[in-house]
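Below is a filled-in request sheet from our internal design queue. Each sheet records the structural input a requester submitted and the sequence that came back. We keep these sheets so that new team members can see what a complete request looks like end to end.

REQUESTER: design group, bay 2
PRIORITY: normal
MODE: inverse folding
CHAIN LENGTH: 407
BACKBONE (tokenized):
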């Protein structure tokens, strides 16, 4: 069978797992490591494809669950698939909807993100009667069983049951170059007993996803990545990498929410086990310090909504840390967001103008912040790639993080 993807490693980081490489897809190459910009509903929020491309993005990732819910797979089919919908000629990814199993289920209403700081050791998933007895309980929008997950539509309340096979079928319709097997994302706060249960379910779903995918002609044009889970447990993470690594996936995603203090450790555990010659994608991670750790520990691609989400709310990245453009100090600041940045926002606008637009709730203000943020994060990972190749990665990491003020 024709392979839909190939990967070559062009340079390795001495003594560690980091590497530079190239992923070859039907819609072009991805020079890795690379940050993949998120366009959840087949659009990068607030930006045109031309803006995304000018910011340096090589590929875009869309969300299977959201496109299935709206506009629906039949309309996606009629629109010609994701490339035509987005007017994007380059490589594309779709996630499986697995994160929504968590965010709309156990994590619903708890304001839990992909990376937790000082995560409390509190079980997030328990018997439903435990939830109903809590005063702060939120209605779940998903229920999980052996075969898949039942989602309640936020639009009309209808129930949709998504199995691994159904997730792949939807992703075939969407038509991305790289897809992910249906999995169950878990929080690091969940007890080991549930991590074990969810991991076994993820492995069964991975095999079913792969079997269904390989039974279709799409397997010749669309790549499928298995998703490693296992929470904060070294043995579970390594087991997951071993089980999935033995299957005929085209590459691998590393999933789950992480504790801020052990993300790099969990990534290293996994990448020491996964096959070296296949690409590895770290799902939902995009903060600068986390990207450095991911690259150093062997990840090739990353995605995260943070650049545009922060931009919409007036927060922008700088080499000295994040700033909020709505703060009083920027009302009369005639300098660009960053002096040495060549993004469209910094070339054309001052902080004062962007602050005025943001305070006035003009859409352009959020767009300019998002343009800068995408350019900043995409460019930072591109710098990491160049540093891997020329042997200066450690120098870049030290200089950047010594200057960058973290949250």
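RETURNED SEQUENCE:
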């Amino acid at each position: 069978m024709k392979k839909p993807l190939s990967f070559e490693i062009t340079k390795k980081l001495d003594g560690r797992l980091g590497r530079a490489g190239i992923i070859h897809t039907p819609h072009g190459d991805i020079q890795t490591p690379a940050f993949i910009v998120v366009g959840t509903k087949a659009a990068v929020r607030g930006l045109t494809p031309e803006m995304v491309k000018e910011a340096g993005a090589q590929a875009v990732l869309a969300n299977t669950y959201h496109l299935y819910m709206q506009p629906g797979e039949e309309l996606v089919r009629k629109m010609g698939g994701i490339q035509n919908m987005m007017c994007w000629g380059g490589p594309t990814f779709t996630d499986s909807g697995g994160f929504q199993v968590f965010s709309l289920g156990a994590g619903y209403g708890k304001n839990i993100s992909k990376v937790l700081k000082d995560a409390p050791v509190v079980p997030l998933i328990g018997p439903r009667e435990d939830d109903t007895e809590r005063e702060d309980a939120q209605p779940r929008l998903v229920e999980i069983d052996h075969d898949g997950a039942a989602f309640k539509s936020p639009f009309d309340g209808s129930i949709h049951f998504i199995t691994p096979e159904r997730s792949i079928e939807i992703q075939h319709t969407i038509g991305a170059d790289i897809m992910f097997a249906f999995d169950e994302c878990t929080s690091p706060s969940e007890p080991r007993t549930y991590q074990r249960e969810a991991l076994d379910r993820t492995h069964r779903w991975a095999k079913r996803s792969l079997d269904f995918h390989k039974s279709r002609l799409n397997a010749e044009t669309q790549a499928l990545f298995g998703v490693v889970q296992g929470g904060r447990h070294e043995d579970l993470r390594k087991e997951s990498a071993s089980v999935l690594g033995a299957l005929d996936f085209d590459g691998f995603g590393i999933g789950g929410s992480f504790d801020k203090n052990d993300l790099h450790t969990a990534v290293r555990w996994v990448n020491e086990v996964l096959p070296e010659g296949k690409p590895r994608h770290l799902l939902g991670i995009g903060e600068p310090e986390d990207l450095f750790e991911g690259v150093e520990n062997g990840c090739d691609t990353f995605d995260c909504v943070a650049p545009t989400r922060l931009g919409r709310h007036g927060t922008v990245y700088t080499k000295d840390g994040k700033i909020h453009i709505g703060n009083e100090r920027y009302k009369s600041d005639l300098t660009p967001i960053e002096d040495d940045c060549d993004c469209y926002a910094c070339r054309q606008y001052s902080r004062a103008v962007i602050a005025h637009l943001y305070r006035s709730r003009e859409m352009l203000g959020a767009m300019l912040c998002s343009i800068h943020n995408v350019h900043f994060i995409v460019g930072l990972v591109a710098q990491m790639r160049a540093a891997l190749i020329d042997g200066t990665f450690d120098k870049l990491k030290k200089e950047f993080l010594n200057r960058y003020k973290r949250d």
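SHEET NOTES:
- The first helix runs from residue 49 to 54.
- The first strand starts at residue 6 and ends at 12.
FILED BY: M.R.
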